[in-house]
């Protein structure tokens, strides 16, 4: 299931970048006014109005794919096994603490690093 999540996430990111590029390539609403006065839009790659239709349709298709991959990622993430307890309990593992040996040779009941003041250490 982990490889499926990676594949869908990769497609999701690529589609998001493609949508950003297509939106930046499209003309605004005011760009059509310049074409009416002969700005040379008819000599473009897609023709006078072909670029708007092509880019709009492609953006719509990519938006639908983006929506589908978003739902797929949410479904895959919800199918992961649930943990019982907090995330900190699962990630932090306690290690055994050796008792601190005092100068007199006695073992202390205070773990190492528990108290930093001299009055915290039992005598």
From TrEMBL:
Residues 82-123 are annotated as: Disordered. This is Protein-export membrane protein SecG. Belongs to the SecG family. Keywords: Cell membrane, Membrane, Protein transport, Translocation, Transmembrane, Transmembrane helix, Transport. It comes from Azonexus fungiphilus. GO terms for molecular function: protein-transporting ATPase activity. The keyword Hydrolase does not apply. One of its GO terms (biological process) is protein transport by the Sec complex.
């Amino acid at each position: 299931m982990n490889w499926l999540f990676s594949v869908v996430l990769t497609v999701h990111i690529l589609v998001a970048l493609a949508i950003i590029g297509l939106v930046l390539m499209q003309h605004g609403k005011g760009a059509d006014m310049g074409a009416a006065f002969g700005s040379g839009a008819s000599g473009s790659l897609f023709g006078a109005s072909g670029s708007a239709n092509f880019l709009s349709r492609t953006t719509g298709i990519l938006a639908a794919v983006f929506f589908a991959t978003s739902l797929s990622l949410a479904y895959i993430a919800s199918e992961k096994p649930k943990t019982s307890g907090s995330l900190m309990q699962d990630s932090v593992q306690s290690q055994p603490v050796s008792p601190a040996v005092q100068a007199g040779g006695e073992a202390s009941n205070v773990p190492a690093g528990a108290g930093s003041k001299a009055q915290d250490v039992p005598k």
